[in-house]
Design a protein that fits this description.
This protein is an alpha/beta fold. The protein is built from 13 helices and 13 strands. β12, α10 and β13 form a beta-alpha-beta unit. α5 crosses α13.
């Protein structure tokens, strides 16, 4: 397993600059970069990369792919993954153990608050051991969405609970566990996907409840964790705020809710540009994401024709977006000196009793 490079001190890793990086995070098509992808990424200069199941085979291959991505842009670019546990876990057995869902963690919390918080922290700390061994340094976790009865299963058991207090407490513990292991979290899906009655991978959810209801139920976890460095938007229309555009492309939501009401000052990533909740061509979607106020366009499927459209419609990082991106690179924590085997044994024993 390619651990040596990943264990270099955070200070050394994140000193490298990101001159003229473009405001996008991209995926790739397979288990290694093709010559075309290497040339494309070198010229396109994405700020970071994201991995999916199609990019996963065995540990050394993953580490080599991460290294190829960074070599292509000539710097230690952030590499993201969705490693939540439950049904959203890109790296699965036999490479890494199967981890429980957010709901299963929340079930422990509902019986024993301190034990639940410990479980959330432990699982994230174990994710950090796993991912850092491969050079992956950002986990798109925690899920801070608060589902309501009847909402789409797109969130479902990924959520810690159906009340904002549980989601806030467990989300904070999960984020702290990642940071204890030297990784950075990405809060999702701001300002809240819990009321979506449609799966935004396939169609556009429209939420019609009052802003007062959103402020009481959906926004609180994000307000409580507003000082985190990164967050991801949701492709959801909040009709009482902006009836025409989903949050990802809405100035009213991003400026008025995410930046002003919630108070989030960090780097704001879109959810995946290729999801069908968004209208228009991929290029139009990318342009609308930037125009709406997101700092970074996320494009995940690795299709070259789509990535070319993203590149054509995304600017070089500059202004406040550049400052936020630089804050992320400077904000990677140094991992603690925790002993992996003992933490893993504690976590496994905790779930053996559930």
């Amino acid at each position: 397993m390619p651990v040596d490079a990943a264990r270099i001190s955070a200070r050394h890793l994140y000193d490298s600059g990101m001159t003229e990086s473009k405001a996008m995070i991209l995926g790739c098509s397979g288990l290694s970069l093709t010559p075309e992808e290497k040339a494309f990424f070198s010229a396109a200069r994405p700020w970071g990369f994201i991995l999916f199941g199609r990019n996963i085979s065995e540990p050394r291959q993953i580490g080599d792919l991460v290294a190829e991505m960074r070599d292509a842009v000539g710097r230690h670019a952030p590499v993201l993954i969705d490693q939540e546990g439950g049904r959203v876990q890109r790296i699965r057995p036999p490479i890494f153990q199967h981890y429980p869902s957010g709901q299963q963690l929340g079930d422990i919390y509902r019986q024993d608050r301190e034990k639940g918080l410990r479980a959330a922290w432990l699982m994230s700390r174990l994710h950090a051991f796993d991912l850092s061994s491969l050079g992956i340094n950002v986990d798109c976790l925690p899920v801070l969405d608060v589902p309501v009865e009847g909402s789409s299963n797109v969130i479902g058991n990924r959520a810690y609970g159906d009340d904002p207090a549980t989601v806030t407490a467990m989300g904070r513990a999960a984020a702290e566990g990642l940071k204890a292991g030297g990784l950075l979290p990405v809060m999702k899906h701001m300002p809240g996907h819990g009321r979506g009655f449609a799966d935004s991978h396939h169609e556009l959810p429209v939420v019609t409840v009052s802003r007062a209801e959103l402020e009481a139920h959906d926004f609180p976890p994000f307000i409580a964790m507003k000082d985190e460095l990164m967050a991801m938007t949701c492709h959801v229309v909040f009709a009482t705020i902006d009836s025409e555009r989903p949050a990802t492309t809405s100035r009213k939501v991003i400026d008025g809710i995410i930046r002003e009401y919630i108070g989030f000052k960090g780097l704001l990533l879109s959810d995946d540009t290729s999801m069908n909740a968004l209208a228009g061509t991929i290029g139009e979607r990318a342009a609308n994401i930037i125009a709406g106020g997101c700092d970074i366009v996320l494009h995940c499927n690795g299709h070259m024709d789509e990535m070319e459209q993203v590149v054509e419609n995304v600017p070089v990082l500059r202004g406040q977006s550049l400052s936020r991106a630089e804050a992320v690179l400077k904000g990677f924590p140094t991992a603690d000196k925790a002993e992996e085997a003992s933490l893993r044994a504690e976590f496994d024993a905790m779930f053996a009793t559930v």
